[in-house]
Design goal:
Blueprint lengths: L2 H18 L1 H36 L6 E5 L8 H8 L6 H10 L3 E16 L2 E11 L3 H4 L4 E4 L4 H5 L4 E4 L1 H8 L8 E4 L2 E9 L4 E2 L3 E2 L3 E5 H7 L7 E6 L5 H15 L11 E3 L1 H44 L1 H9 L4 H34 L9 H27 L3 H6 L2
Parallel strand pairs: 3-10, 5-7
Antiparallel strand pairs: 1-11, 1-12, 2-3, 2-11, 4-7, 5-10, 6-7, 8-9
């Protein structure tokens, strides 16, 4: 008898045994269902969070550098105090950087403030005011849904124009067309020339649609002539990101008049810094979460092992007969392993059906996603649990002496 025939025969015998003990099989399956549901829901939550984070972080652009006084991560409180003493960037320095870079497709200085913005008797509170140049359209990756973006002449001449975010347009103008209307920012009248495409939120916290973009000089006259500027620099192409970064560092050191050996008094931040930090944190959370939820699966596996030992004890006579007429140890082993794996596979399929429905409930609180990867892992875990849990009972059955087994009733 070849392996395929043994497997087929073991499956039919196992299925008959499961049908003969429906209540016991159902209770055994319940433990696996609970374990697989918890593991699957944890997997869908982790997968959903990963996808939501990557979608959110993609708005920054993998080839964009954010130059500022502070580093986003990897610094102590003492380092933060030192960074506070760094001199802010000036418009002269920004212009010099822009003129000297050869591996950058765009350089945009950015000054940010928070302020209400008004239209007639309506007010949109705490709006992110972005003072910048026309190249912000390239470095930020934003696009305009209606109207247009600022022109170089409007930026250079500090013209009173503004491009507003999707939420600001909804809050202030409701059903009106905002293009050509006048809004007020710190008593300054600004003409709306464009509306940005809807972008959603960044990391679930910062609303990218609650912002307006204004010529830098116009913002400086309205808020401060000595802003805390940052630079957004887009590399000329994704293949030269590292070269562009090194060139940017060299130009910045030259413009900031730093002597050789003197540490940088600026930080070049990138999207990858967020991704690396997120992966470390998410990996730790996933390991802890899967360990805790895996305990439920472990308990279910112990339940299957116990039931399989009972099943072996009840069918000792049957095992003796099969071995007496020539069944090999491998045949008996396969029979009971197939039985345990079938219980777990059925439990896994049932658990996936339950988890699929629960995923919609979880999505109200977390960005859960049940991908094919999660489904495949859940089924493999189910089968592995069955094989691992049923191995010792199956091994015990396979090693029975047929004479001793036949003596038992």
């Amino acid at each position: 008898m070849n392996f395929g025939t043994e497997l087929k025969e073991g499956f039919f015998i196992s299925w008959a045994a499961l049908r003969a003990n429906k209540l016991r099989s159902a209770l055994t399956t319940l433990g696996i269902v609970i374990g697989v549901v918890t593991v699957t829901l944890m997997g869908t939550a982790i997968e959903g969070l990963n996808q939501a984070f990557l979608r959110s972080i993609s708005t920054m652009g993998a080839d964009v550098f954010f130059v500022m006084r502070f580093s986003w991560f990897n610094h102590s409180y003492a380092d933060w105090l030192k960074m506070q003493k760094r001199q802010p960037f000036t418009l002269t320095q920004v212009k010099a950087v822009e003129n000297q870079l050869t591996l950058a497709s765009a350089v945009a200085p950015v000054a940010e403030y928070w302020s209400p913005i008004k239209y007639r008797n309506r007010t949109s509170n705490r709006v992110n005011i972005v003072g910048t140049t026309e190249e912000y359209l390239i470095t930020s990756g934003v696009s305009v849904s209606s109207g247009r973006f600022m022109t170089p002449d409007e930026v250079e001449g500090a013209r009173p124009v503004v491009v507003i975010g999707a939420d600001v347009a909804t809050n202030l103008f409701q059903l009106e067309n905002p293009i050509g209307k006048t809004v007020r920012l710190n008593q300054t009248a600004l003409e709306v020339v464009g509306v940005l495409d809807k972008q959603g939120s960044f990391l679930g916290e910062f609303n990218l649609d609650n912002r307006v973009v204004v010529p830098l000089k116009q913002v400086l006259s309205a808020f401060s002539r000595y802003p805390n500027l940052r630079l957004e620099v887009k590399a000329i192409n994704t293949k030269q990101v590292e070269d562009a970064k090194e060139e940017l560092r060299g130009v910045l050191r030259k413009v900031r008049r730093l002597a050789p050996g003197e540490p940088d008094d600026f930080s070049i931040n990138q999207q990858e810094m967020f991704i690396e930090r997120f992966n470390r944190v998410a990996g730790t959370i996933a390991a802890i979460g899967l360990f805790i939820t895996g305990l439920a699966l472990f308990v279910g596996g112990i339940g299957i092992m116990n039931i399989m030992f009972v099943s072996v004890a009840e069918r000792t006579h049957e095992i003796g007969i099969r071995k007496a007429i020539g069944a090999k140890r491998r045949t008996i082993l396969i029979q009971f392993l197939t039985e345990a794996a079938s219980i777990c596979l059925f439990g896994g399929l049932l658990a996936l059906a339950i988890a699929y429905g629960l995923t919609f409930a979880v999505q109200k609180f977390l960005p859960a996603t049940m991908s094919l990867t999660v489904v495949a892992i859940a089924l493999l875990v189910s089968i592995f649990t069955g094989v691992a849990s049923g191995f010792f009972p199956a091994w015990r059955a396979a090693r029975m002496d047929p004479v001793e087994a036949l003596r038992r009733e």
